[in-house]
Amino acid sequence: MSGPAADRVRVFLVDDQQMVRGGFRMLVDSQPDLEVVGEAGDGAEALERLAVTRADVVLMDVRMPRMDGVEATRRLAAQPDAPRVLVLTTFDLDEYAFAAIRAGAAAFLLKDAGPEELLGAIRTVHAGDSVVAPSTTRRLLEQFAAVLPDPRGAAEQPADDRLAVLTEREREVLALVGRGLSNTEIAAELVVAETTVKTHVGRLLAKTGSRDRVQLVVLAYETGLARTT
């Protein structure tokens, strides 16, 4: 028998295919530390249900009727104490998935990922792990890096403004965060204490207005910092 409900990660499922949701529910509920607390067939329904359902992690499909996963993720991310969003897609290179990550999703995973990879991704996202995970998230960012808009363009001017307030060391840390390094790895790279790296990351989040570490990674790619290291 599983442990107390309070100790479990609360997972919410959003997909327009009921059979897909059923499969995810069986897998998640088979784990003693995870439980499905609700599900929805599109983004609009998800927002309605999540308004009255406490969840830690949302498994979010991107292509759905009425409201897609990108818009739902954007609206969720704007809320205080929002659940972490793990984007699921059928396509390895999906502009919708990339848009969802830019909108505030914590990670991206293919629907055909193995059970252990999916379960591991849920736990990683919930823990707010310092390394960008799962690995497909980093690959997606790398593939899109070459076609991102010029960061000097009008649409990307806010990103330039955010970088302008950073110190040289903070830019170094941001570049290493963009490469997917953990605080421990960054500390070793820069030969500083890990607590110092944590302080820099905290300042980066505050100065750039980024919601979490994944948003810092996106910023590093958009501005070219991750591509110059």
TrEMBL record:
Residue ranges constituting the Response regulatory domain according to the UniProt record: 10-126
Superkingdom of origin: Bacteria
Pfam short name (any one): GerE
SUPFAM superfamilies in the cross-refs: C-terminal effector domain of the bipartite response regulators, CheY-like
4-aspartylphosphate modifications at: D61
Keywords: DNA-binding, Phosphoprotein, Transcription, Transcription regulation
HTH luxR-type domain ranges (all copies): 159-224
PANTHER family, per database record: TRANSCRIPTIONAL REGULATORY PROTEIN NARL-RELATED, TWO-COMPONENT RESPONSE REGULATOR
Name of protein: Response regulator transcription factor
Source organism (scientific name): Nocardioides oceani
